[in-house]
Amino acid sequence: MFGIGPWEIVLILLIALLVVGPKRLPELMRDLGKFLAQFRSVTDDMRRELQLDEEVRRLRETVHDLQDVSATAMRKMMQEVEEEAKAQAEQKPEAEPKADLASSSPSALAEAPAPEERLAAAESAKFPDHGKA
Question: How far apart are CA 91 and CA 113, in angstroms?
Answer without folding.
Answer: 36
